[in-house]
Write a structure and sequence with these properties.
By secondary structure, the chain is an alpha+beta fold. It has 2 domains: 135 residues, 2-Layer Sandwich (Phosphorylase Kinase, domain 1); 98 residues, Transferase(Phosphotransferase), domain 1. The chain has 7 helices and 11 strands. A 5-stranded antiparallel β-sheet has the order 1-2-3-5-4, with helices on both faces. The protein has a two-stranded antiparallel sheet with strand order 6-7. Strands 8-11 form a two-stranded antiparallel ribbon. The longest helix is centred in the middle third of the chain and has 21 residues.
């Protein structure tokens, strides 16, 4: 590598370390790799800081906004992740090693999003992933991300619910269950539901797939009943499976 380029690379890396000093060194290296590959210029602002992951907005060189989801290597609930993933036929050879499980969890979310998009389900477009970091489409307007359903009640509750059921039906037809669907994991983007947090989504071959689907249906019915729209779990299940 030429000296000038080497010095520029070193300068950029030091600047990066200052900006991203809150992360562990491994995550910093992965972020720096994704930046040098041109997926985004750097993290912009936090959208959600949680126990399992940190979610940030970021800008590309073209000025387009994307989402960067970073799974935390130290504080992720490994047991929950492993319980979901160990019975997933797609990851049957995975050993119970924490870092490998987290990396597979990230890959799993990317894969679930791709499969959901192919089934024409409203989910963010996955862009790329590396180790414990996922880059995906920013769902919102300008610099404002779309609110979660729990934070913005739809104007037409019945129509919004019908759209949720339609997306659940498309998922089911594609052989997928979200497995953690609720008003916390659905965005209200211009009165259209967008499913997010697809890492725990699993195939119908999973031994607990039916249980997960019933839980999803119960969560959705419970929410809409609370906001004044009468719903019935059996009826919703029939529509999803038709």
């Amino acid at each position: 590598m030429p000296k000038a380029r080497r010095e520029k690379f070193k300068e950029g890396r030091e600047k990066f370390k200052t900006m991203h000093g809150v992360f562990d060194e491994f995550t910093n290296r992965t972020l720096f790799k994704l930046i040098t590959e041109g997926h985004f210029k750097g993290l912009e602002s936090p959208i959600n800081i949680g126990k399992e992951s940190n979610v940030f907005s970021a800008l590309t060189k073209e000025g387009k906004r994307v989402i960067v989801k970073i799974y935390r290597l130290e504080t992720c609930d490994f047991n929950i992740m492993y319980n979901y993933i160990k019975d997933d036929p797609r990851y049957s050879n995975l050993k119970d090693k924490k870092r490998k499980v987290i990396f597979s969890w990230t890959q799993r979310e990317f894969r679930n999003l791709m499969n959901s998009r192919e089934a024409q389900v409203n989910v963010p477009l996955p862009i790329t992933f590396s180790n414990n970091i996922l880059v995906l489409e920013f769902v919102g307007k300008n610099d404002t991300i779309a609110p979660k359903l729990k934070d913005q009640i739809p104007k037409n509750k019945k129509l919004f619910l019908d759209k949720i059921i339609d997306n659940m039906r498309k998922l089911y037809k594609a052989g997928i269950v979200h497995a953690d669907l609720s008003a916390f994991n659905i965005l209200n983007f211009d009165e259209t539901p967008v499913f997010i947090d697809m890492s725990q989504a699993t195939t119908l071959r999973h031994p607990r797939a039916e249980e997960y689907l019933q839980r999803d249906v119960k969560n959705i019915c419970s929410f809409f009943n609370k906001i004044g729209l009468k719903t019935y779990e059996r009826s919703m299940m029939r529509k999803i499976k038709k």
